[in-house]
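Cross-posting from the chemistry board since nobody answered there.

I work mostly on the small-molecule side, so proteins are not my area. We synthesized 2-acetamido-2-deoxy-beta-D-glucopyranose and want a rough idea of how it might sit in this target. Sequence and SMILES are below. Is it possible to get a predicted 3D structure of the two together?
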Amino acid sequence: MADQKPQLFELNNGTMKVMVSNYGCIITSLFVPDKDGKLGDVVLGFDTLEPYLNGSAPYFGCIVGRVANRIKEGKFTLNGTEYSLPINNGPNSLHGGLKGFDKVVWEVVEHKQGDNPSITFKYHARDGEEGYPGDLSVKATYTLTSKTTLSLTMEATPENKPTPVNLAQHTYFNLAGHNSGTTILNHTAQIFANHITPVDETLIPTGEIKPVAQTPFDFTTEKRIGTSINEIGLGYDHNYVLDSGEEKLGLKRAVKLKDPVSSRVLNLWTDAPGMQFYTGNYVSGVVGKGGAVYGKHSGVCLETQGFPDSVNKENFPSVVVQTGGKYRHRMVYEFSVE
Ligand SMILES: *[C@@H]1O[C@H](CO)[C@@H](O)[C@H](O)[C@H]1NC(C)=O
Ligand SMILES: *[C@@H]1O[C@H](CO)[C@@H](O)[C@H](O)[C@H]1NC(C)=O
């Protein structure tokens, strides 16, 4: 409903606590225990919704869409019609345009308490909204499925025209704590991907599917994120092809992230084909929760997604959803200590 106000909702199962807003489906805080059982807030964000509303947040915690990541020069052709999107990132269109799904108020459909608390949001995108074709109804549900597991299910149904749909969750994690004063460079990552989709100078994929072996992109075994980050310019901002993770309940393991100091571990599972591994390269001097200052590499994003610019790349898995079809994307964030 257009008259709903942006507000915060709590999911709390006694062990894990998540604060989430109906504005952009933003996760503003996420508390999980460390090796001593001490709760820490492991995501970057703000205490109030004001900074999100006035555009100070570099996509902290939100769901991005209708199409996440970059579309070359904001153009694509579908069923003979050329579509033009707002250009908001160099020469390209990023994360759904000027007012993407991260900058709108979603309707709260259901908010359940109990052992498996959950919240479901719904949004209706109009035909032509931010340049995209067709009316689209979108739903997102966050659920605490166990003491230390958060799941997110995103669905979208085109109502009258085929349209590209590619939703992604854009939380910046720092498992040492958002206010630890340290970057994520000492975290280790294992990414279950033997390939990336390399990009040109404007961060648009060249169309190649390139092996990571013997390159700084190789995270096939657990590696400190900072080890070879300086060999690739500002840092990682690349789509990994999730082609080697074990499977569980229809999901593939995408990444294992670990902070050696707190011993917190995050395993992320998904049914998406790719994951943008983004090391917060453009974050600079953001004053966040409790006055914590977030700089470059203060957090890492693990954005499971369809491949960037798929709509212009015939060899990438299609992100177009036909009328009568349905988009579905599941993610499971499994926290632990080791
Ligand atoms: C493609 O465009 C044609 C002509 O405008 C239209 O008749 C047809 O229904 C469209 N196809 C889909 C799948 O929307
Ligand atoms: C990483 O760990 C080393 C060794 O414990 C420490 O000296 C350094 O300050 C840490 N760096 C960051 C960015 O946390």
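Reply from a structural biologist on the board:
Welcome over. Reading the output above for you: Residues 75 and 84 are 5 Å apart (CA to CA). Residues 182-183, 185-186 surround 2-acetamido-2-deoxy-beta-D-glucopyranose (ligand 2) (CB under 6 Å). Happy to explain the token format if needed.
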